[in-house]
Amino acid sequence: ARFYDVVLDGTRPLKEIPRVAGMLRPTTFRLIYTLLAYRLIEFNEDATFDPSEDPKKLFTQECERLLGADPFELLGVHWSEHPDTIRERYQRRRERYATVSPMAKHNPPLAMEVHTAMERAFNRLQERESRKAARKELGDIDIRGAAHILMKHGELASLRGDMRTVKQCFEMAMELYPTKEYQQQMATLLKS
């Protein structure tokens, strides 16, 4: 068997990984998807900065981009995430823009503005109906497909015995696309 040492640290785009790893593109992306599905890896929204670039300029650009983003992007979550995951991500991200953070010193007023926008986005995404309205604002999204993927992810989590993830996946699938079939699957898996 051949083994490859590829670091997924954000220094190169995902599309370059198959070339570097010497694997076919579909194989590489299936591997990455499987690792994500089993939560063995996760995407980190905190990109590393190139030291040759001006950190103040980069921070200002990042803040300006975030101020124009939808609530999900602002918090660094997918629109199908469970409220618990949204809360965890919010708590991690808000520290970056708090006035005492090392990054915020580059532009304190803008950091405070982003911090306030994150707070508003977080509060909005705590209620089910508000999340639904925010998803509608995104436009054409595949809610049914996301619900199906969440159900499959919940089934995988049940095989691992991760009942917290099972519950979260099924709750979100039911929130996104409530069907009797999903209710039955949820009841069956939660019983076992």
Short description:
With 192 residues, the protein is mainly α. The mean pLDDT is 82.
Overall description:
With 192 residues, the protein is an all-alpha fold. The chain contains 10 helices and no strands. The chain has helices at 17-21, 25-37, 55-67, 71-75, 83-97, 108-124, 128-137, 143-160, 163-176, 180-191. The longest helix is centred in the last third of the chain and has 18 residues, at 143-160.
Q: Rg to the nearest angstrom?
A: 19 Å
Number of strands: 0
Low-confidence stretches: none
Give the number of helices.
Answer: 10
* Alpha carbon gap, first and last residue: 37 Å
- Rough outline: globular
- Overall average pLDDT: 82
Element-by-element helix/strand order: HHHHHHHHHH
Structural class by helix and strand composition: mainly alpha
How much beta, percentage-wise?
under 5%
Helix percent band: 55-70%
The major β-sheet equals: none
Give the topology, please.
Layout: H1 17-21, H2 25-37, H3 55-67, H4 71-75, H5 83-97, H6 108-124, H7 128-137, H8 143-160, H9 163-176, H10 180-191
Main features:
192 residues
